[in-house]
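Quick one:
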Amino acid sequence: MARLKLITSLAVAALLSPVAAQAQTFKSSAGDLTVETIAAGLVHPWSLAFLPDGRMLVTERPGRIRIVTRDGKLSLPLADVPKVYASGQGGLFDVILDRNFANNRTIYFSYAEPFEGGARTALARAAIEGGDTPALSDVKVIYRQFGPPSRGNHFGGRIVQANDGNLFLTNGEHFTDRDKAQTLDNDLGKIVRLTPDGAAPNDNPFASKAGARPEIWSYGHRNPQGLAINPADGKLWEQEHGARGGDEINIIAPGHNYGWPLVSYGVNYDGSPVGTGKQQMAGVDDALWHWTPSIAPSGLTFYTGDLFKGWKGSLFNGALKFQLLSRLEISGGKVVREERLLQGLHERIRDVRQGPDGALYLLTDSSGGRILRVSPAK
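Output:
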């Protein structure tokens, strides 16, 4: 028994200890890059958010939120996270800090909530209590996706907060209910806009339309797993998975239709055409950029720092299938060039964030997931 306790203690200590791993070097247009492991031992980490003191909030898809110190120590899971549907692509998803976090200690997180034998995308808010053992308090579910449940696929789940405090949340179309992305009586395949309390703002595009869900901001989406506001002009940018080809980057406008499943630059998994087989059609916003074949993008951030020469204003995307970091160069509101980075890393990149130090931080999607820091080589 004593030996078993010793082994258990050593395992816990290894999990909570910072990682000493050899850094890797990669080539880029900004010079050599150093990629170092900040923390390891995470199970399918999905999202990362920086606290004001430099520590990080990290979600794990099985349903855990941890705090990670700057030297890589993992806290025990925070208590009182709601039960998640951790099956297929379901689980705990995104986490962000409220814009007024310094005063209200509020965070928002999305997850797959068990519902009618499957799950639906939900959004919760909570406060983080300080001290030596951080915990959640005042946990409240402020939004639940309206429509039939998913059986494990296409939840979306990315969150962003606008300057006015309102929240945007992406919802997937559950794969088997793709046609509902084109109807306004449900939230499948939609981006919704909510107040911090979960209500639908009165100026949402369908707030007064009979038969439409008032929270809908845009529709015709497949499985959006990237969302970011361009600091240059305040526009909302979105990234979503296609099927076989047709991963998209879109600029989101209120009330607009983004085409799925009527049009696509890809095809279905069996090779058959999507919809009528067209890539564009009247009344549908065309993708600003698309990847064919699919890279399976996840995580989206605009770079605003000075650490990487010439990269300010670039849009960074993680890639799951192609296991790389994609940098899109933006000029005049359009994508003019792509640079594919870290292709020798051989890791599924779930999320990408800019740190307070100007470095890029990545989450690797595996049962032994890591937090990676990307910086210019010294």
